[in-house]
Design brief:
Elements (H helix, E strand, L loop, with lengths): L6 E5 L20 H18 L1 H8 L3 E6 L2 E6 L2 H10 L1 H11 L5 E6 L11 E5 L3
Helix pairs in contact: 1-2, 1-4
Length: 129
């Protein structure tokens, strides 16, 4: 099993997926529909879990990618990722599926800063487990 935080550098566009529903062409970037889904779910979390829980745990969640019916959501720390996975992940997935039945999984990942250059038109792609 590969470490989900491992990053693989792939040169050129050959490694990028072709157009799929919910995903922009040649990218893992979420489509406008998927972005709207996430904004709606994010607001539902505030209403369902309350303002204090939302501000402490859920507000920093950021949609990063959509691929293979998986929403990839970043969090700032491993501690927050683990807490969300143990306490809120199941309900967040249910909320996403209520908006779009194609969503099969929500993957929480720790946001990592990248300090390299992409001048050679290289692309950084997360290695999936």
């Amino acid at each position: 099993m590969k470490n989900p935080d491992q990053i693989l550098k792939i040169v050129g566009q050959a490694a990028l997926p072709e157009h799929r529903d919910g995903v922009e062409p040649n990218s893992y970037a979420p489509s406008r529909d998927i972005q709207d889904l996430w904004q709606c779910v994010h607001q539902e979390m505030r209403a369902e879990f309350g303002e204090a829980v939302f501000r402490s745990w859920l507000k920093p969640l950021t949609l990063q990618a959509y691929y293979h019916n998986t929403l990839e959501v970043s969090v700032p720390t491993r501690f927050i990722r683990d807490w969300i996975q143990n306490h809120y992940a199941g309900r967040i997935l249910e909320m996403c599926q209520a908006q779009n039945r194609d969503v099969q999984r929500v993957e929480f990942v720790v946001a990592q800063a990248f300090s390299g250059s992409l001048e050679d038109k290289s692309f950084i792609v997360r290695v999936l487990r």
